[in-house]
Write a structure and sequence with these properties.
heterotrimer; A alpha+beta (190); B mainly alpha (338); C mainly alpha (163); B: 338 residues; mainly alpha; two-stranded antiparallel ribbon; 67% helix; globular; C: 163 residues; Four Helix Bundle (Hemerythrin (Met), subunit A); 7 helices
């Protein structure tokens, strides 16, 4: 009983004279390699051309602000809990009076760090987030010279306040996603 | 006499320059061809089509740090690559690059040194070729290098035998050891038509003698790091790598001369061109053949996987050698009967 | 011109022959021996014996010496091994060497060394050599070639047996 129909029975039979000459097999192989010379190349010439990204590519994270420019994150820790690689850590703090224009919720993340070397870009943090605060974007994590530099803090994660510099995540917020987030038996919706 | 000397000097300079240039660009062609076979483009950043890549590689090799292991035998460590390069360049002396060319009433042959023992000379020089590799591998005082050197020597001795025997049948047919004479005799029909088996044996042995895949066990990056040139760096390494390509060029030239009519171009005499034009066209045709064989060397390299060591020895001693002997006997019988 | 080449080659041959004895690294000895062979091949060329010269290089320098080098590399000989000879062996070696020297001196004493001259005969050329070998010395030549062939077949058989 085989799982696929691709199994091949290997036999150790004696080769015929023609096979033992190897030359026909060699010519066959050479014809194959010559065919490849004229095939379409798979290389993408990088600096001139870039590889096409999927619209819902999961790259480096962004911490979204709301329409008034306030941080959405409330430091509930669900993303850190959901993270299979344990890449996210945070320190919560209480919003002081006068900071209402900075943070949307009464509790906010004073420190929010993602270790980009640990992160596996699965997007579970995104689906765990009840406040629509963390999203994965099409941007790529830059290369650095040290491991410490890959621990991204809020300075790199939170998007700019200016409206025209906001990062568009609408592609990752399709109606299906929004509907999924409202499902009653999902943990973060309870 | 003076004109003769000047002509020969210029010829030597041209051939030397050409061998180096072709070896240089063979590296690029090799990488390009390998790339195309593997559905890639190969180097294309340095200049258009990567045309400056060999120059960049050469410059890089020149400016790399000269590193010498302190346990190495200093003199022999330097002698190794020099000898390899010297031997690689020496062979081109007896290859007839073209017919006669007339300059100012004098008729000059486009062969640096014509003697009655051309083929034997080539054999003598190639049999010297193994020393460069052995000395370099031994002098590095490195186990991988030593293993590579030992493999190289046993491989080259084994395949030299079959090579010599396969050529013997060609020599028997033409009755001369002079290469230009052999080219002349192929005017009506190339030797490949009479000696296809000898050609296959010779080509296989040429692959082994130049240490090209599938017989590249002396370097064998999978198991021996770099084989005999593991400890080499900078231009000494460059010499080793470069001489491989020169060897390839020269063996392609020898193959075209022995089996494919050398500089002789079919139907060229019917066109009624002047002698010099015919000679130059013939030389160009020879180079076309040479380029084809260089490409064939590369084609084989990027198609076939490397032999295992015992398979290599078995192929040499139990397949090629008896086949070459058989070919020799058959040639003798046919010559007696016809 | 040829005189100078002769003396140059002779000097090289003698120098490398002496170095074979003097040098104490086995690999160096071997390489000097190869150099010596090369110089002798040069002498053959001067004597207009091209075939002999090239065969000398192919057979001695190209094949036999490679095998020597091969074994030397495998054995990895070094200096200490050589120095551990017993006193008796050294005395015997010294005496036999001395005897050889005496013999050579007696033989060479009174021998007039002819001035070097290049031969004008064509006997060393491949064609003439072949004609002589295949007419005058036909039987011994063929016998030798059969001997070599059987040795070669034997080598192939040994490779096959070791499967």
């Amino acid at each position: 009983m085989s799982l696929t129909n691709r199994t091949k029975v290997v036999s150790n039979k004696r080769m015929s004279f023609l096979e033992r000459l190897y030359l026909p097999a060699i010519f066959k192989g050479m014809v194959i390699t010559m065919k490849h010379v004229f095939m379409k190349k798979v290389t993408i010439k990088y600096p001139e051309k870039t590889r096409e990204f999927s619209e819902i590519y999961r790259g480096r994270h962004v911490l979204k602000r709301d329409d008034e420019g306030r941080e959405r994150c409330t430091a509930c820790g669900l993303c850190a809990l959901a993270c299979p690689a344990e890449a996210i850590t945070m320190v919560a703090a209480e919003r002081q009076p006068g900071e209402e224009n900075l943070y949307r919720e009464e509790k906010y993340a004073k420190v929010y760090e993602i270790n980009m070397l640990r992160c596996i870009y699965c997007g579970l943090c995104e689906s765990a987030c009840p406040k629509e605060a963390i999203f994965l974007t099409k941007n790529i994590v830059d290369s650095e010279y040290g491991r410490a530099q890959f621990i991204y803090g809020k300075d790199k994660l939170v998007e700019p306040v200016e409206k025209d510099k906001r990062i568009d995540v609408s592609k990752r917020q399709t109606p299906e996603v929004l509907a999924f987030k409202k499902l009653p038996n999902e943990r973060h919706n309870i | 006499m003076i004109v003769f000397l000047i002509f020969k000097t210029v010829l030597i300079a041209i051939i030397l320059g050409l061998s180096l240039l072709i070896a240089m660009y063979a590296t690029l062609v090799e990488r390009k061809f390998a790339g195309f076979i593997q559905d890639r483009y190969g180097p294309d950043r340095a200049g258009i089509w990567g045309i400056l890549q060999p120059v960049c590689d050469g410059a890089k090799l020149f400016f790399k740090e000269e590193y010498m292991p302190n346990t190495a035998d200093k003199a022999l460590y330097i002698l190794g690559p020099s000898l390899t390069m010297l031997v690689a360049l020496l062979t081109s002396a007896v290859i007839p690059w073209g017919g006669n060319i007339a300059i100012g009433g004098n008729n000059f042959s486009l062969q640096v040194a014509s003697s009655s023992i051309d083929i034997l000379y080539i054999f003598a020089i190639t049999s010297m070729g193994v020393y460069g590799i052995m000395i370099g591998g031994w002098a590095s005082n490195n186990k991988f290098a030593l293993l590579g050197a030992v493999r190289a020597s046993s491989q080259m001795i084994s395949y030299e035998l079959a090579m010599g025997l396969s050529i013997a049948s060609v020599i028997m047919m033409s009755g001369t050891l002079s290469l230009s004479e052999i080219v002349h005799q192929q005017e009506s029909m190339w030797n490949i038509a009479y000696q296809p088996l000898a050609f296959i044996i010779f080509f296989t042995c040429a692959l082994a003698e130049t240490n090209r895949a599938p017989f590249d066990l002396p370097e064998c990056e999978g198991e021996l790091v770099g084989g005999y040139h593991t400890e080499y760096s900078s231009m000494k390494l460059g010499f080793y790598l470069f001489s491989e390509y020169i060897n390839m060029f020269i063996s392609s030239a020898v193959i075209s001369t022995l089996f494919f009519g050398g500089y002789h171009m079919p139907f060229i005499n019917d066109l009624g061109l002047s002698q010099n034009v015919v000679t130059l066209l013939g030389t160009a045709f020879l180079f076309v053949k040479i380029f084809f064989f260089i490409l064939l060397f590369m084609w084989v390299r990027w198609t076939l996987p490397r032999f295992r060591y015992d398979q290599l020895m078995k192929l040499g001693w139990t397949m090629l050698l008896p086949l070459a002997l058989l070919n020799l006997v058959i040639t003798g019988i046919v010559m007696l009967l016809v | 011109m040829e005189k100078y080449i002769f003396f140059g080659l002779s000097g090289l041959a003698i120098f490398s022959a002496i170095m074979v004895l003097v040098s104490n690294k086995p690999i160096h000895n071997l390489l000097y021996l190869i150099l010596c062979f090369m110089a002798i091949a040069g002498h053959y060329l001067l004597l207009n014996a091209q075939f002999l010269a090239v065969v000398h290089i192919i057979v001695y320098a190209g094949a036999i010496m490679v095998l020597f080098l091969f074994t030397l590399m495998m054995l990895n000989l070094n200096l200490k091994l050589e120095l551990n000879k017993s006193l008796m062996a050294r005395i015997v070696a010294f005496v036999s060497g001395l005897l050889l020297l005496v013999t050579l001196v007696i033989i060479l004493n009174g021998l007039v060394i002819p001035t070097p001259k290049t031969a004008t005969t064509q006997i060393g050329m491949t064609r003439d050599l072949g004609q002589v070998l295949f007419s005058e010395y036909m039987v011994p030549f063929e016998a030798a070639s059969i001997l070599f062939l059987s040795a070669m077949v034997g080598a192939v058989m040994m490779v096959n047996k070791n499967k």
